[in-house]
Design goal:
The structure holds two protein chains of two kinds.
Chain A lengths: L1 H29 L4 H11 L6 H11 L6 H13 L14 H36 L4 H14 L3 H15 L19 H38 L2 H8 L4 H27 L5 H7 L4 H10 L3 H29 L6
Helix pairs in contact in A: 1-13, 2-3, 5-6, 5-8, 5-10, 5-13, 6-8, 7-8, 7-11, 8-10, 9-10, 10-13, 11-12, 12-13
Chain B lengths: L14 H4 L4 E3 L6 E3 L2 E8 L2 E6 L13 H13 L12 E7 L2 E6 L7 H5 L6 H4 L19 E7 L2 E6 L13 E5 L5 H10 L4 E3 L5 H4 L8 E4 L2 E9 L9 H10 L2 H9 L34 H10 L3 E3 L2 E3 L7 E5 L5 H16 L3 E5 L3 H10 L4 E6 L5 H9 L21 H12 L3 H18 L2 E8 L2 E4 L3 E2 L17 H6 L3 E2 L2
Helix pairs in contact in B: 7-9, 8-10, 12-13, 13-14
Classes of the chains: A mainly alpha, B alpha+beta.
């Protein structure tokens, strides 16, 4: 039984992956306008006078494909099979793999650690609020979470940037590290990068905290109504034991699924927040790719995003068989 | 993204301080500042001879010569991807003899000297052996310019003064630093205000409060007009192919309000002669009334619309067949000033009875609509080269007026008038100032009376300067170039700087 469940999930994974790959190929090409138009737009926005000669030269420099969609699709699929993602239009001298490789660590560390941090803190607050439902602590946590849930993270980021960086000068205004420094793993560089990551991390963590608080609090309240919790209380177990080992453990299940999904979404970066802070991560890269109609870079980024999302879902599915034996039957 | 290949579009801005062109014409007056050439002359209208500066050295110590210039232009011929200004569509040959370089033009084209003069020259002794120069990133640039590459990091690079530069004695800065810009405009604005920049280029609202007041003794700005923003009409479609209708639109607009809404009133309403004023005022034809300014006049607008077959019925302007005049204006959504102008234009045209829809796509779609000629009306810009010929040629030459669905970047309104082509050809061939003036006046009067584009206000050029370390920035009292750090004006300005007292 369990074997059939796993096999079904694997087949589903492969089909979804193919569909996602095809969409990743089609979506960028459905955008109106071409990479050449986008490149001219960048020059025009900078105030450069554009001529027909300029258009022709840019067409040649970008090497925009002229083959039919079918030919391009085939090249795209064989490219992926060989882990060859081509050359980016936005950074004509870099391969797509290099561009993604240099942006990925920034996003993985920033968005990954804030996601984990927000999940742990949010879940704990939710457990506490649920346990103390109707009390003052519950009100403070719930109202606070509602308040911050209303802030879009990029806007909180802009506010923080204006007050804490611009007005007070406590934090740097932009970037992942001080300008002019070459990234390395030295202590001084890591300290500098940490300093630059505080504000974007805060903006992301505070706004994503609320989701975990609400989810966990509601699950807790449901679980607390179950007979086994009443039974445990009646047996005279200590309050903390009942709250954490009996109620919270079972209430955690739905949040684990959500956590898996949000870990999968980490690689998509936080496009707007990274944009506001000029953070050199995948979100910023995606923004650059889209605004330049950079097909190769967009395809590869979408690929990374969908694959990590699919893998996260797949792992959560498999994990669930262990966490909740009823699923595999 | 280290890229110091001066012939690519993706080059880093500082490349312009490492390589020099022959000469740089001012984007305001067209006056030349000589660099690798000491002068030029047309021996006849199709033969252009540059005299090359002597005893110039490349930054690796090798001597520079006329052969390097010929090599560079032949490189553009061999690799058309480099020829972004269309050199080889206008010339047939280039050759060197002693310290002279001679260009042979296909047809008389005196203003084309501007384009030839601005090609950055690369060293033959290094570039001859590069197998794929188009993809070459040139990490260790060797040029003749006043600066060489210092340190490079992904978010900032530094150029150092080139001690063997031929004009080293007059170069004041010892170092030029280029920090990377953010993709977020508000973040960049905050940084300009908070930062310690000597020169930045950014549109700031209420600049006296937001920038000058931060350091009143040093912070200054200069926002001269750098082009013309107008309402472009698709001349292949009715009713825009009727000059009376276009004239009506022009008189229905209140340009002062449009300029105020679009650019905070920093810029003035534009002259319908097509000249960027006051930059090019020496070319202005005095017989055109009121320097070509058109003010809002509803009754004369309605008279023009009547001549085009449109009359006001109630609140609507109704044309042949009893149909209300309607127009879709396309504006790129990321250009906030154009968007504000478009919104004001649709309000004002709505008031006279035209049903206006604003279409606000991303730039790439806007660009394919206007270039393909499928649009009704569009907000767009032109000009600012400092040369009346180049400005008028891009706006009016029928050579650019491609059929609908064949993309054209210039003259996308698709204006065709044999008189304009003749005047352009006459201006191109003219070497005497009086003939040049006569042909320019003719083009001004075509712009003024045919209304190929409803010009509205001047596009701004947003220079922000600090005089803490350097003086000699371009300004209203010394307008030697537009304050634009992204083109050759960078080299002109840096070589003009003096130490602050």
């Amino acid at each position: 039984m369990r074997y059939r469940y796993v096999r079904r999930k694997v087949v589903l994974f492969v089909i979804t992956l193919w569909a996602a790959l095809t969409l990743n190929f089609l979506l960028p090409r459905l955008m109106p306008g071409s990479p050449v138009d986008a490149a001219l737009g960048k020059l025009a926005a900078a105030g450069v006078t554009i001529t027909n000669a300029e258009r022709t030269a840019i067409e040649m420099q970008l090497g925009v494909p002229h083959g039919s969609l079918i030919t391009q699709y085939w090249q795209y699929l064989t490219g992926i099979a060989h882990f060859n993602f081509g050359v980016s239009y936005s950074f004509p001298n870099e391969t797509v793999a290099q561009a993604i490789g240099s942006a990925a660590p920034w996003t993985l560390v920033l968005v990954g650690s804030t996601t984990i941090f927000a999940f742990i803190i949010g879940t704990l607050l939710g457990v506490y609020a649920g346990w103390r439902r109707g009390k003052a602590a519950d009100s403070v946590i719930t109202v606070g979470a509602t308040f911050f849930a209303g802030f879009p993270p990029f806007w909180l980021g802009l506010l923080a940037l204006y007050w804490l960086s611009f007005k007070l000068g406590w934090f740097p205004i932009k970037g992942g590290y001080s300008p002019g420094v070459t990234p390395s793993l030295s202590l001084s560089f890591l300290a500098d990068a940490f300093d630059h990551s505080i504000l974007p991390a805060l903006a992301l963590a505070i706004t994503s905290l609320s989701g975990w608080v609400f989810g966990m609090r509601n699950n807790m309240i449901n679980t607390l109504g179950e007979d086994y919790v009443t039974f445990a209380e009646a047996n005279g177990l200590r309050t903390r034991t009942v709250a954490l080992l009996y109620a919270a453990r079972n209430a955690l299940l739905p949040n684990v699924t959500a956590f898996g999904l949000s870990l999968g979404a980490v690689v998509g970066g936080a496009v707007l927040v990274e944009g506001v802070f000029g953070y050199p991560g995948l979100g910023n890269l995606l923004y650059i790719a889209v605004s330049n109609h950079d097909y190769p870079l967009m395809q590869a980024l979408f690929l990374v995003i969908t694959v990590s999302m699919l893998v996260a879902i797949f792992i959560v599915d498999l994990l669930y068989v262990r966490l909740d034996p009823r699923v595999g039957q | 993204m280290e890229d110091f290949n001066p012939l690519q579009a993706a080059e880093l801005g500082g490349t312009r301080l490492i390589y020099e062109p022959l000469e740089i014409p001012s984007t305001i007056s067209g006056v030349y500042t000589p660099f690798l050439a000491t002068g030029y002359a047309f021996t006849d209208p199709t033969t252009l001879v540059y005299t090359i500066r002597q005893s110039v050295k490349w930054s690796d110590g090798k001597p520079f010569s006329a052969a390097d210039v010929v090599f560079t232009f032949n490189l553009l011929k061999k690799y058309p991807a480099f020829d972004s200004t269309g050199i080889w569509s206008a010339i047939t040959a280039v050759s060197a003899s002693g310290k002279d370089v001679t260009f042979t033009l296909k047809s008389p084209d005196v203003p084309f000297a501007d384009t030839i003069a601005q090609v950055p020259i690369v060293p033959e002794h290094l570039w001859a052996s590069i197998s794929d120069p188009v993809a070459y990133t040139n990490d260790h640039p060797v040029g003749t310019g006043p600066f060489t590459l210092g340190q490079f990091a992904p978010t900032q690079y530094t150029l150092k003064k080139n001690p063997s530069y031929w004009g080293a004695a007059t170069i004041v800065p010892s170092e030029v630093v280029f920090p990377a810009q953010s993709t977020n405009q508000s973040t960049n604005q905050l940084e300009v205000v908070a930062g310690d920049y000597d020169w930045s280029y950014n549109y700031l609202p209420d600049v006296k409060q937001t920038y000058v007041a931060k350091d009143p003794t040093h912070n200054t700005y200069w926002f001269p007009p750098g082009g013309v923003i107008g309402l472009y009409l698709n001349l292949t479609k009715a009713p825009y192919n009727d000059v009376n209708f276009r004239m009506g639109l022009s008189e229905a607009l209140d340009r002062t309000t449009i300029a105020a809404k679009a650019v905070n009133g920093y810029m003035q309403p534009a002259s319908m002669t097509g000249l960027v004023l006051p930059n090019l005022e020496k070319w202005l034809d005095p017989s055109i009334p009121n320097t070509g300014l058109i003010s809002q006049d509803r009754s004369s607008a309605l008279a023009d619309f009547t001549k085009a077959g449109y009359t006001q019925q109630g609140a609507s302007l109704v044309g042949p067949g009893g149909v209300q005049a309607s127009m879709t204006i396309v504006v790129p959504v990321s250009f906030s000033d154009w968007l504000a102008a478009g919104t004001e234009v649709s309000t004002e045209l709505g008031a006279i009875g035209i049903k206006v829809t604003l279409d606000t796509p991303q730039y790439a779609q806007y660009s394919s609509e206007i270039q393909g000629g499928t649009f009704d009306a569009a907000i767009g810009g032109y000009g600012g080269t400092g040369s009346p010929y180049t400005d008028f040629d891009q706006a009016l030459s029928s050579a650019f007026a491609a059929p609908v669905n064949t993309p054209t970047v210039n003259n996308f309104e698709r204006f065709k008038d044999p008189a304009a082509d003749q005047a352009l050809a006459a201006l191109a061939a003219a070497t005497s100032p009086s003939v040049q003036m006569q042909a320019t006046a003719q083009l001004e009067s075509i712009m003024y009376s045919q209304v190929p584009v409803v010009l509205m206000y001047y596009g701004g050029s947003w220079g922000l300067f600090s005089t803490k370390h350097f003086t000699g920035w371009p300004s209203a009292s010394d307008p030697y170039t537009l304050p634009t750090p992204y083109n050759n004006a960078l080299l002109t300005v840096i070589t003009h700087l003096k130490s602050a007292p």
